[in-house]
Amino acid sequence: MDEEPERAKRWEGGYERTWEVLKEDESGSLKATVEEILFQSKRKRVLESHGQVRLGMMRHLFVVIDCSKSMEDQDLKPNRLTSTLKLMEAFVEEYFDQNPISQVGLIITKNKRAEKLTDLAGNPRKHITTLKKAVDSVCVGEPSLYNSLKLAIQTLKHMPGHTSREILIIFSSLTTCDPANIYELTKTLKDLKIRVSVIGLSAEVRVCTVLTRETGGSYHVILDESHFKELLMFHVKPPPASSSSECSLIRMGFPQHTIASLADQDAKPSFSMSHLDSSSDPGLSLGGYFCPQCHAKYTELPVECKICGLTLVSAPHLARSFHHLFPLQAFLEIPVEEHQGDRFCQGCQGELKDKSVFSCPSCSSVFCVECDLFIHDSLHCC
Amino acid sequence: MKINIEGLLVYFPYDYIYPEQYSYMLELKRTLDAKGHGVLEMPSGTGKTISLLSLIVAYQRAFPLEVTKLIYCSRTVPEIEKVVEELRKLMEFYSKETGESSNFLALALSSRKNLCIHPEILHANIVVYSYHYLLDPKIADLVSKELAKKSVVVFDEAHNIDNVCIDSMSVNITRRTLDRCQNNVDTLQNTIRNIKETDAAKLKEEYRRLVEGLKEANVARETDVYMANPVLPDEILQEAVPGSIRTAEHFVGFMRRFLEYLKARLRVHHVVQESAPQFLKDVFDKVCIDRKPLRFCAERLRSLLRTLEIADITDFSPVTLISNFATLVSTYSQGFTIIIEPFEDRTPTIANPVLHFSCMDPSIAIKPVFERFQSVIITSGTLSPLDIYPRILDFRPVTMASFTMTLARTCLCPLIVGRGNDQVALSSKFETREDFAVIRNYGNLLLEMSAIVPDGIVAFFTSYVYMENIVASWYEQGILENIQRNKLIFIETPDASETSMALEKYQEACENGRGAVLLSVARGKVSEGIDFVHHFGRAVIMFGVPYVYTQSRILKARLEYLRDQFQIRENDFLTFDAMRHAAQCVGRAIRGKTDYGLMIFADKRYARADKRGKLPRWIQEHMSDGSLNLTVDETVQLAKHFLRQMAQPFRQEDQLGLSLLTLEQLESEEILQKITQIAHQA
Fold first, then answer.
1. Res. A27: pLDDT tops 50
2. Is residue A197 part of a domain?
3. Cα(B224)–Cα(B239) distance, rounded to whole angstroms?
4. Are residues A120 and A175 located together in one domain of the fold?
5. For a surface tag, which of A3, A103, A163, B460 has the fewest beta carbons within 10 Å of its beta carbon?
6. Per residue in B314-330, pLDDT tens?
């Protein structure tokens, strides 16, 4: 897997002004740089997510990946497609980690058509293998937003009303080739309460702005690779549920993992239900998860039972999505002059040099900006 | 919010204010205080109109005796409507704040369908109308002559005001005009004959009045009721109408002779250029018409039309035109030139004789305005270099200031592309115009940009001919086909309906995410009146420097005049004219602080200090030294980076305190310090 895709020669690549990254803002304090604005919005995001809102924890998400000609552009290394697919793998992992009871499907669009790579499913492994395979696909033609949305709608509209229906488009091209007026489709999406978000790889395109605004999604354009990753990970967090979505109780099964040793006489090797249709993986094993309703065996969770349709999750999984419901409280921002006491960050033990420090309202320890973000974004507990 | 501007309480109908608006109002107030004229440049989209209205209305209320009326002149009907909309907002704010319905009367003269002739309109506090109502002597006399002296006149979007002045004073006479004029004269003669039979006393009465001279008008003007009219020079008011044209028949006969003379002059086979005195001498030699009666021609015709009680004056526009021409040519010995061309330059075989009576001095038309009104404000988004306007319009301003745009983020990105990827210098100059390499590189630039700029791109060429050549060549090279993979292509044509159709489709393509390129021409309809907000214009590409067609005889005469009379060198004026059009073109993309756009100047000549220095300050200050001579490749990289930066979320809070102020912020010492730096006195 370490085989590097052939890199273009340096002189074949685009012209880059690498030195300009280092340049500081010469016009002084009058103009806040875009980076600063970005930082402010990051802080804001942390603050925003701490209201007590109902989250759509059961998600059905279609990720549409643009595979048009523009994905061959080399401004992300080695090119946009490879970079995107790599990040997508990480995204899928993280997504199921944080949303154990949700599902994902993949759609690609190229040559004015849309094609479903994987159906909605709760198993990360299948998506990841598909993504790995997709690296070799060729990028041709123009994408079609209309066709991809239409394809996603076909499946999403049958999903139960209490789940959140989402489409995430990774859009590299600046044009879309549509068979009909896309604004008609926007209305349909709105009626079906499907939220469309877009991550643009090149620039702000009007039609995406309208599409996301109308359907209540978000629209971001990447600055570079790390920003891309950040934006993608932003979609890992479940969105607030719309107040009009239905409420219902869902039956779930919590199967226990039984480990049988070979020495045990009663143990009989059996096939996992999820591997019945795939011929690649070896089937026979001793232990596994058994559905409490019909005793079908599965080797991994979460999964929807193929026999009786029960959602099978493990208790730790469910617990992991707990922090979405009771998020860590936002830290108080205090200017560094007013702060008394500790001069060192509780997290990284570094000296507090920024113009403001952050203190936890419950334990009143102080942190620097970086640690504040880290605690809120990754640790979720102080 | 209510702002205190040097002791004047200004009601401002919005909760937030841009720093430059405050600065603008400050300068404006100083101009009004000094009772002088001002030249103010402020970028479009920074709320010029509302600043002007708020301050002047506040001034009117505070000093009702000092300023009685605001006359707001704009160019087009949509612009006038925009002004009225802002004014309505301001008035609503007033009545909400003060609790009383305001006794302000505002009047907008836009088109005939909105016409009102109620006498009360004479007392309106605010009048909004087109330039022509004040500058064109033919219309001004009907509409504007009774406006009070203590008025403030504002010319908005005034970067082309010299051309408007010149156009309003120039007369073009073709053979068709003369034929229609002949018909007019015949009609006049018949009417006179009829009236003579039925109501001879009326004609006698007119005769008596003419003997007395135009005393009435003279009294009115001296007592300051009327504004001076350039077609009615002061001297002739003192005198009686000369005997040779006093009776109606004689006057008609006189006009006939003059017409015959003009017809004979149009029968030339070569180009003739002569001055007004030469022309008058020729008239005298050929048909024995003196200078004096010619001068009274316009006034005499008006009197006749009034006497004959002819209601529909529009039918008589050709004869009015000729009589105006007669008066002008005999009144001004300087500032005008007469050029008779037997055919157009493009079609030398088709005879189409035209007599151009061309005004070369814009100050003639605008002089009465400057003399009559105590404050005249000339303002626009692009007025650089500021000092040239007072020179060509011949007035002395008390304030001249250029304001920059304070921005929370750098939302405009001017780039000068001087070279192609193969290092060929890009330029539209005459010598390299046909050069294959230049055309290919221009095509390459557009192709590359079409791949990275979202939604709409507007490209401007220097002329229709140049555009046709380039597009044809691009077609042969297959560049157009490649561009069409990225975006649809629309082209502006001289035909107005075709162009508006193209525009409509262009906007639709931008809206639907297909993306489009609009190829248009500097000085065309698109470059002046149409805004490309947000996604309708993410990039403007200016191919070449839009110099005016220098071989035109009218232009040559004007340049000569400017050099002799105002000591403005030809080259300076041409560059100034080219750069103001270039600035207008690229300025189409940025129509406000939340908007953003690339401005690409594709000609290496833009990098020279004499060109660059003539761009408005708000564009200049964003040009870094590094972006003066870029190749196409470098441009693409910079543009990509810029577009990504601009696509980041941008909210109103980000602007607050930097480029958008609340009342409290406005009152802080620190901000006031900054505001003083915005205005740049010329």
1. no
2. yes
3. 19
4. yes
5. A3
6. 788 889 889 889 988 88
- The answer, yes or no, to whether residue A1 has pLDDT greater than 50, is no
pTM of the model: 0.84
User: Architecture of domain B412-649 in CATH?
Assistant: 3-Layer(aba) Sandwich (3.40)
CB distance A175–B408 less than 8 Å? no
What is the span of the domain harbouring residue A202?
A: 54-236
Are B431 and B619 within 8 A, CB to CB? Answer: no
Residue A370's domain is classified under what CATH number?
3.30.40.10
Query: Do B351 and B342 touch, CB atoms closer than 8 A?
Result: yes
Q: Are residues A59 and A105 in the same domain?
A: yes
The pLDDT tens digits for B124-136 are: 788 888 888 888 7
Residue B313 C-alpha from the chain's centroid: 27
Query: What was the pLDDT predicted at B521?
Result: 94
Helix, coil or strand: residue B128: strand
d(CA A132, CA A115): 17
Do A161 and A187 lie in a common domain?
yes
CB-neighbour burial class of residue B354 (10 A; exposed 0-12, middle 13-18, buried 19+): middle
d(CA B392, CA B366): 11
Grade residue A283 by pLDDT with cuts at 50, 70 and 90: low
One fold for B2-158+374-402 and B412-649: yes
* Identity of the residue numbered B541: I
Count of domains forming chain A? 3
**Residue range B249-260: mean pLDDT, rounded:** 91
Predicted local distance difference test score (pLDDT) of residue B662: 82
Cβ separation A174–B638 shorter than 8 A: no
Distance in Å from the first CA to the final CA of chain B: 31
Quickly list DSSP for B68-105.
Answer: -EEEEEESSHHHHHHHHHHHHHHHHHHHHHHSS-----
* Token digits of residue B477: 């090279």
Contact residues, chain A to chain B, C-beta under 8 Å: 14-17, 30-34, 37-38, 40-41, 70, 75, 142, 145, 174-178, 181-183, 200, 202-209, 220-223
Tell me if B409 and A34 make a contact (CB, 8 A cut-off): yes
How many Å apart are CA B112 and CA B428, to the nearest integer? 43
| Residue where a domain terminates, one of A279, A305, A322 | A322
Side-chain half-sphere CA neighbours of A269 within 13 A:
6
Placement of tokens 């002045």 in the chain = B165
* pLDDT of amino acid A16: 56
- Do B633 and A182 make contact, defined as CB atoms within 8 angstroms? no
Q: Is B416 a residue whose pLDDT tops 80? A: yes
Check which CATH number belongs to the domain holding A211 and give it: 3.40.50.410
Same domain, A172 and A281: no
DSSP-based three-state secondary structure for A118 = strand
Q: Nearest CA to CA, how far is B671 from chain A (Å)?
A: 11
d(CA A65, CA A63): 6
Give me the interface pTM, i.e. the ipTM: 0.81
Strand B597-602 relative to strand A366-367, pairing: unpaired
Measured CA to CA, the distance from residue B446 to residue A167 in angstroms comes to 34
Report CA torsion sign: B41, B44, B47, B50.
Answer: positive
Domain assignments of chain B as residue spans, ordered by start: 2-158+374-402, 168-360, 412-649
Burial of B405 (0-12, 13-18, 19+ CB in 10 A): buried
Residue A29, pLDDT above cutoff 50: no
Q: What is the CATH T-level fold of the domain B2-158+374-402, as seen in this structure?
A: Rossmann fold (3.40.50)
Cα B434 to Cα B432: distance, rounded to the nearest angstrom? 6
Is A214 in the same domain as A308? no
- B18 pLDDT higher than 60: yes
> Which run of H or E residues covers position B380?
strand B375-380
Three-class DSSP category at B602: strand
Q: Which of A291, A330, A329, A333 is nearest to A312 (CA)?
A: A291
- Are the beta carbons of A182 and B513 separated by less than 8 Å? yes
How high is the pLDDT of residue A4? 41
